Write a sequence for this structure.
């Protein structure tokens, strides 16, 4: 079982939502929910090869198959399974606008630690087709730290280091705001 007691309150706080204490307490005896968790996420992309390369070559996912007739590639990192689907006509595809379209606003991925987050930021600064919306900075009041990018197809990906993955020294660091 994942530590929902840490993840749920952090995500909710970032959105200004209060989470009932019972939802935060892993130790509370409760019946297993019928809906358990995210099985996989399917994302439509305008450049299947470029988006797949980012997931595999930079983010450490591995190819887990695909369907050349659809076309689609499946990638997995041991925790997250992502299906990347190629749009039928990339030239006429409509880019997602997080403020005006219903759909996936972004996908947030937990990073191992701050060192990994900063190394990824440095790599992505020069990675072809990637746009950095903002570099590592506090999520809300911190010390949870995150950054946001758009992949080569325009998908918004957030990378997060929760407080629980930081040492006491790291938690005491000032806000690393590094807007790019």
């Amino acid at each position: 079982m994942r530590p929902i007691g840490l993840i749920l309150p952090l995500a909710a706080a970032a959105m200004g939502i209060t989470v009932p204490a019972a939802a935060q307490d892993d130790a509370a005896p409760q019946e297993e929910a019928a809906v358990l968790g995210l099985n996989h996420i399917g994302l439509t992309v305008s450049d299947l090869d470029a988006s797949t390369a980012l997931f595999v070559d930079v983010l450490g996912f591995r190819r887990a198959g695909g369907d050349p007739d659809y076309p689609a590639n499946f990638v997995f990192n041991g925790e997250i399974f992502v299906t990347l689907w190629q749009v039928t006509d990339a030239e006429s595809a409509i880019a997602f606008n997080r403020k005006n379209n219903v759909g996936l606003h972004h996908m947030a991925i937990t990073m191992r630690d701050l060192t990994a987050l900063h190394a990824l930021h440095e790599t992505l600064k020069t990675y072809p087709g990637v746009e950095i919306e903002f570099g590592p900075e506090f999520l809300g009041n911190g010390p949870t730290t995150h950054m946001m990018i758009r992949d080569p197809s325009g998908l918004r990906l957030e990378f997060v280091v929760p407080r629980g993955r930081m040492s006491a020294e790291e938690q005491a660091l000032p806000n690393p705001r590094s807007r790019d």
In short: The chain has five helices and eight strands. Confidence is low (pLDDT under 50) at residues 1-25. The chain has two domains: 39-88, 104-180. The first helix runs from residue 4 to 14.
